[in-house]
Each structure stands twice: as C-alpha cells, then as structure tokens.
Amino acid sequence: MQADDPTDAERYRAPALDKGLDILELLAEQKDGLTRAEITKSLGRNASEMYRMLERLVARQYVVRSPAGDRYSLSLKLYALAHRHPPMNRLIAEALPVMQRFADRAEQSCHLAAYDRGNLLVIAQVDGPGTWGISVRLGARVGLIDTGSGRVILAFQSPEQRTHMLTEHTRVKGESALDPLALENAYAQIRADGFLHKESQQTFGVMDVSFPLLGPSGQAIATLTCPYLRRIDEYVAPSISEVSALLGDAAAALSMFREPDVEFGDSRDSSAA
C-alpha cells in the first residue's frame, strides 16, 4: 500500500458510531458517572452533538441518567447482551456434564441461572436420579431479591454493578420485598462464606444451596443452585453438608477465578436475614 493511501480505519470511518462508542468507553471507567459537560470536555466534542448522542443512548437504554437527571452512567444493557452471546452457550455446554455428575452423586436436582434484564434466567437444569425431586423450569425467570440464586449473584458484584442490577430489577410473581439494610448484611455474609444456604422463600421444606460461578474479575457471572430436599424415609441419601460440598466443587470447576479466602464446599450455614 502506498504511503498516501488511506488505511482501512480511515476508509471505513463511521463518525456517529465512533462518538457513541467513545461515550460508552468513557463511562465504563467512571464510578459515579459524568455530567454532559464533563463528557463533552473529556472527549473534546461539540456540546450539541454530545447532547444528541446521549439522548439516543438513553433512549436505547445503554446509558441511564441519575435520579437528579444531571449525571450519566452505563446501564446493564451491555452486560445483558454479553450474556446472550455465544460464550454463555459455551458455559452451558461446559456446565451440563458437571451438573449431571453433581446430580448423580448428590441425588438432587440443580439449576444454573444468569442475570438478565432485572431478574435471573434459568439457563440450564438437571434433575436428580431419584423418584422424588424438585426442579426449576428451564427458561424460567426467578426473583433477584428473595431467591438463593439472586442473593448470591448480587453478593458477588461490585457495589456499582449491584446498584445497577437493583435499579433494573422488576418483581416477578410472588417475589417478596425485603429491607435494603437486611440485604446488604446478607451480601456481606454470603461473600464471607462463599455461598448461601437458606430455607426457600418459595416452597416449604426446601433448602436452597447456591454458589457463584466467578468470572476472571471475581464477579459472579452465574449461580449454581440445588433446591435440597431431605429424605425422611429409611433411604440414606447424601446429607445437606455432603450436597453443599459437592455443589461447591462443581461451582469451583466452572469458575474462572477464586478469591483466596473463599472456601467452596464449606458446609457452614450462611442463612441470610
């Protein structure tokens, strides 16, 4: 190519797209968002073109305004889109054999859930081998606030990401409204324990055991949950402590990151408030 020939980058420039991407990349680095004036100054752009671009990004829900309306920050739409991308399909493909081994050994069902537009979406489900069991329907949307899966995925996020998730949250049918302070205390306990073990708030007699699947940054990309049912007949099935250890091993095998102080498989009861 001759020296004075335009490069591919110059030949296929899309100025409007570049402006939008510049804004998204800038806001991705900001903990508390930015005002329109700060965005304009940082990018060295014209104020009117930044106004139009921000209005479109807000309208398409990639960017949200603060309650006062004077600051802009990223929404979770890009996060949600990333979870619909083929890497999530690869996670499911890798998770299913691990989940099946857990179900066979624990004699319990389990399901994998990921955050999607304000709640959790069940993306994989495996039944236990026994006659009796409980399962959550594949593709079901479950509550973010009062389920084991929801609390665990919220606990293993940055404070900013958790705030965005809660802002996007819409209650599903039957979901309980809980005190924000109690939830914050629950998140701290879950992070300390590395998992959650609590009575189900949806079904009597079920103990939810939930572990995070951690991404490279240490944030939860999904949760692995067993709705544990205790046998009361003469058959001796694995105990909840044994099941918790097996589920912790399964979650660790699917995680890409482990905090040094998180001991997956610890069977301590971390019942939330």
TrEMBL record:
Cited SUPFAM superfamilies: GAF domain-like (SSF55781), Winged helix' DNA-binding domain (SSF46785)
SMART domains associated with the record: HTH_ICLR
Stored InterPro entries: GAF-like_dom_sf (IPR029016), HTH_MetabolicPath_Reg (IPR050707), Tscrpt_reg_IclR_C (IPR014757), Tscrpt_reg_IclR_N (IPR005471), WH-like_DNA-bd_sf (IPR036388), WH_DNA-bd_sf (IPR036390)
Recorded GO MF terms: DNA binding; DNA-binding transcription factor activity
Domain HTH iclR-type positions: 14-76
Residue intervals of the IclR-ED domain: 77-260
Keywords for this protein: DNA-binding, Transcription, Transcription regulation
Keyword Thylakoid in record: no
GO biological process: negative regulation of DNA-templated transcription
UniProt entry tagged with the keyword 4Fe-4S: no
Source taxon at top rank: Bacteria
Protein name as catalogued: Transcriptional regulator, IclR family
Source species: Caballeronia sordidicola
